[in-house]
From TrEMBL:
It catalyses: a secondary alcohol + NAD(+) = a ketone + NADH + H(+); a primary alcohol + NAD(+) = an aldehyde + NADH + H(+). Residues 20-335 form the Enoyl reductase (ER) domain. The keyword Nucleus does not apply. This is Probable alcohol dehydrogenase AdhA. Its cofactor is Zn(2+). It comes from Streptomyces cadmiisoli.
Amino acid sequence: MADRTMRAWSVVAPGPVEEGALRLVEKPVPTPGEDELLVRVRVCGVCRTDLHVVEGDLEVHRPAVTPGHQVVGTVAGFGTAVRGFTVGDRVGVAWLRRTDGTCAYCARGAENLCPASRYTGWDADGGYAPYTTVPAAFAHRLPGGLDDVAAAPLLCAGIIGYRALRRAALPPGGRLGLYGFGGSAHLCAQVALAEGARVHVLTRGAAARRLALELGAASAREASDPPPEPLDSAILFAPVGELVPVALRALDRGGVLAIAGIHLSDVPPLNYERELFYERELRSVTSNTREDAREFLAIAARHGVRATTHVYPLSEAPRALADLKAGRFDGAAVLVDDLD
Ligand SMILES: [Zn+2]
Ligand SMILES: [Zn+2]
């Protein structure tokens, strides 16, 4: 494989996606490390984090990186130390790529906080290409009965939405507010509803509000509006710091607000009495553990959690990212490989 090349998307110089920050280049087909799988990419989901990598909201970890961390593909080869995989196996590749497995965080089951963690499509080339690699220990087995397009958005949007839901500590039958309603939120909402929550969606965009009501949300309003009842828990999916005090004010006494994004614009000053007192809590969400992924993929299969997907050819990745940036679709975009 080492002498083969492929066409892959590359972040040549981070900047606005509409201005060509993502370019199609010729790269070698990657060679898997000894504990890694080579994956033939069939579908790669589009995540807001990809946009942050392309536009430079996140610092450069690997120059000219190929983004993409919601890969559904098949094993095309593997290193000498890999056991338990066969060529042709269907696997998922997600954001968390590697941890040291030895630090205090890893030891207590918080590998998402590992200081040595590495990420697909940021530290290593990801899935906006016909081939990618993944350490075998971080490859996910995907539930049957879900086609490739339907499975891809579960791998980041779904898993992160699930971790955010657990971080928001929603009590059984509780009242949940979702601020922003894109790929992650619409999957999170389905889990919460299946578990008996009453869900209120607060977001700009009539299409997203319509989708929320179709999925079973009790209400859907503008992000700046108060929900119809106080919230036990809220999750901020929109990368908009101005919404932090808005969401805190919507919480009931003892409520929890979890911030799901990896990047957030600045949070304005908070008023202690109006926004934090009465034991309201503000929490961040950092990546996820493999255990989160296993739990979520099992729950998604059990409850029939389904992404609303918009399919783009991989050759049009910049258009998919520009549409995500402009909020031109509801649900989640996926790229289907047409480069190989
Ligand atoms: Zn660690
Ligand atoms: Zn992501």
